[in-house]
Amino acid sequence: MKLELRGITKRFGSLVANDHIDLTVEPGEIHCLLGENGAGKSTLMNVLYGLYEPTEGEIVVDGTPRKFRTAGDAIDAGIGMVHQHFMLVPVFTVAENVMLGHEETKPMGWLDRRRARKKVLDLVDEYGLKVDPDMLVEDLPVGLQQRVEILKALVRDAKVLILDEPTAVLTPQETEELFRVMRALRESGHSIVFITHKLKEVKAVADRITVIRRGKVVGTADPASSEKELASLMVGRPVKLVVDKTEAEPGAVRLEINDLTVLDGNGQAVVDRVDLRLREGEILGIAGVDGNGQSELTQAILGLRAPAAGSISLDGKDLAGMSPRQILGSGVGFVPEDRQHDGIVSDFTVAENLVLDMVTQAPFGKRGSIVPSAVRDNARERVEEFDIRTQTIESPAGTLSGGNQQKVVVARELSRPLRLFIASQPTRGVDVGAMEFIHKRIVAERDVGTPVIIVSTELDEVVALADRIAVMYRGRIVDIVPPTTSRGDLGLLMAGVLPGAEHADGAGATRADTAPAGPVEAKTNESDATPGEEDPA
Amino acid sequence: MTERNPEGGTQVADTVIAPHVEAPVNPTGEAADAVRAAARKKALITGIGFILVGLYALWAFGFGTSGGEDAVFGMTVPNRDTTHVGDLSLPARGVAIAMSVVCMIAGGLRIAFDRSRLATRLSIALFLIAFVIAFLVWAVAGKQMSFAGALQNTLLAAVPLVLGALAGVIGERSGVVNIAIDGQFLFGAFAAALTGSVTGSLWAGLAAGAVAGALIGALLAVFAVRYLVEQVVLGVVINLLVTGITGFLYTQLLQKDPEQYNNPGVFDNIRIPGFADIPVIGPVLFDVNVIVYLMYALIVIVHLGLFHTRWGLRARAVGEHPTAADTVGIKVNATRYRNVIMAGAIAGVGGAFLTIGTVGTFSKDMTSGAGYIALAAVIFGRWRPLGAVAAALLFGFTSALATSLQPLNTSIPSQFLQMMPYVVTIFAVAGLVGKVRAPAAANKPYTKG
């Protein structure tokens, strides 16, 4: 099936999200749509999938123009989509999810589960998408959930598959496995639109690359182009892909976490006996696939979650039992992972957001009331210093772009003397320009001696920033390794597998030797760990 | 600019921690211990609670009964039984003591087998049954109570609860919390009484009850689905509205000329030969009127429908993850409308039972909160039709006991007996249900984009 987008324009009010985009997807190719966050990739795909109606332009399938009003229309035309956030019902089985909306029934609407199961199993065999049709989706790891999404598209006879940032939630090994499946689908004549902003992946799997910037197609590229070329095409100017930083000069231990355990609502340990030592003037990166306890760990340090066991002490002072306000007051700066929910108050002005956690203290607060002039002066300074692009300091923070909102949060947290700085996903959804800037500020904070914790699911970011990397898996710190560790090893650690036999004691030990010269057992473990090879019995 | 940030990303976060790798990270550690310790603590607390209650039962019921007295339980339903089972006569003191001991044993079992789910459930059931028996023999000692009559009252009390709970299950499974069950009861009861009286046809009354319930359901759906009103508040407001309307019409119309407007009569019982001859429960279950048979059918239909048909799969998808349903072409809001209105009709039938199924007349505020108890049954039954039915029967049984014990002049004040169904509801919902998971999208209106 040949799919063409001709002159697609999508406007939201005065905002032009897609500006006359032309795109042709040939049968049997993996077509990569490369662009920064906010470049308009997802909007374009939502237009293609019938979730948005285009303001202008047309979608042409095999030479006939088509109009998609609902997702159902797109499905009928042979287009399937794997959303960034999976569209699966967690309490349904794999087979139920696959057949939903497309049910095999006997008379009276009675579900024909046998036939549904068989269909799933047939597809599983055909494309090597191993997954047990009777498992509940919520019990599956993310990599397998993604397969269920792919199965959903295939069972509806999709000829063109749209994968929206599919690797964001995968370990490197799961990503490899996904690429294998993508290639298998291409061999069988399917086309794939692969949306991403990760250059390495583009180079690994794409047949053709279309780069989008600010809603426009800015060019096509060959997978053989260098990462640097792709990056500058994507951003529109030459980009530095590495963070400038000097060797860390760690000083005394400032933050000590002993045996920290945090339970979730169901009594499951989401942080499991974590030991950490953080020294003055070093950046500790916490790597791991999303949802392995990183958020809960930072929340526990901030006092947002009560630990079930263990202790956290900063400069010898026990933080346990203190309220978040007291903890912030004792010099902890925190950039939360979800800035729109936890980082800013969208309806407050930029100026107000810049002093959110400081209004009780001088110079911003005096005798229980706010000093507006001090707040304004501070805002002008910060906007200047952090290059926050806002119309005025009185604009609501919600009107800023993601990158600038993040700068507001970072500016606020770095604008007071800190004893510890924690940043969760500091550059999620932030454009490359802002990313460079935020990284520079984080390193600068380290250089004045503040101990820094960076939590990020982007391996690139952790490797670029951290002086030591702690990898979390299912609530535990699997190992602490230097940033020079190979990506393969980091990937294994993210899946909970130790590449070598020796086990770090977790007490801040930095392993010098991380060569993947592990015993054969560890290697076998690797293939076991890859969900694709897991026997769904 | 237009791409959205992950909105909390709960779905992903919740599901990542799944067993797929035999990791060298040892999962049996302090954390697992902590989890087990929490379960153990819970078992210990409930177990000790059971034992203490057992001790109390021993003291109050066992030794509180003078020896030699018998508790007599009538096993035939008056005027309706052809089986002629003799009365059951139990030595009150002995049985009360024995059952109190069983209560304590149940507590011991709860502590001993704190990790087996089956044992946990069995010990809770054992405890409840033994306690109820100990209580009954004590209360009835030296007197006589019709046990079959109590069962019959249980069923009569449970019919509206069951129908209301089924309505609640359908609504919440589709993502709409239906607090308005009570209003649907009341309006259904009112419409059935009025229509039945005016037309002289009970069938017309029954249909009117269903339509009235569906109307309230439609009202709920419009505001909940179309105007995104907070569903709990909305339900309460609708109940107040119905109370007002029916109260007004009752005083203005029904009360002024009861012969004309409030005299629908009651459906006759239909006896099913064979089944009705089963001792004790036969006449209770199979010599009843058409609404009760309709209820039996609805229990089966809703259960099978919800878990084995396309309708049910889609309804549950809409209630769990409406966005996912939307992306596979299911019309989320249309599904919710349809299901809430249909559920309203079922609750309306439950309301009709209150008038044309039992007492035969409408009176002001006659539901006395039964809709809320049905709602409790939904939760106690873990959003499953059969669970909700069991819960409704339990609530029905407690209120039947209250009715049966009242004439015996036990030392329990009658007000306390009348409190019983509500007290049991509170304990059931708060204590015994444990952690349950409501449909994820219940009380969450769906808007695109």
Automatic annotation (TrEMBL), chain A:
Q: Is this entry keyworded Transport?
A: yes
Q: What is this protein called?
A: ABC transporter
Where in or outside the cell it occurs: the entry states: Cell membrane
Q: Where is this region: Disordered?
A: 504-537
What Pfam families does UniProt report for this protein, alphabetically? Answer: ABC_tran
The entry's cellular-component GO terms read:
plasma membrane
Its membrane topology is listed as: Peripheral membrane protein
Give the species: Embleya hyalina
Residue stretches of biased makeup (Low complexity):
506-519
Q: Which UniProt keywords apply?
A: ATP-binding, Cell membrane, Membrane, Nucleotide-binding, Repeat, Translocase, Transport
Would the keyword Aminoacyl-tRNA synthetase turn up in this protein's UniProt record? no
Q: What GO MF annotations does this protein's record show? A: ATP binding; ATP hydrolysis activity
The record's principal subcellular location, in a coarse class, is membrane
Output the InterPro entries linked to this UniProt entry.
AAA+_ATPase, ABC_carbohydrate_import_ATPase, ABC_transporter-like_ATP-bd, ABC_transporter-like_CS, P-loop_NTPase
Ranges of residues in domain ABC transporter: 3-239, 255-499
UniProtKB/TrEMBL annotation, chain B:
Q: List the transmembrane segments.
A: 43-62, 94-113, 122-141, 147-169, 176-196, 202-225, 232-253, 290-307, 340-360, 366-383, 390-408, 420-438
Enumerate the InterPro entries for this protein: ABC_transp_permease
Among CDD domains, the record links this protein to:
TM_PBP1_transp_TpRbsC_like
- Keyword Hydrolase on this protein? no
Keywords of the record, alphabetical order, are: Cell membrane, Membrane, Transmembrane, Transmembrane helix
Membrane topology term: Multi-pass membrane protein
Localization recorded for this chain is: Cell membrane
Reading the lineage from the top rank, the first entry is Bacteria
Q: Name one GO cellular component term.
A: plasma membrane
Under the heading Pfam families, the entry gives: BPD_transp_2
The main location is membrane
Q: Supply one GO molecular-function term.
A: transmembrane transporter activity
Q: Does the keyword Transmembrane helix apply?
A: yes
What protein name is recorded for this chain? ABC transporter permease
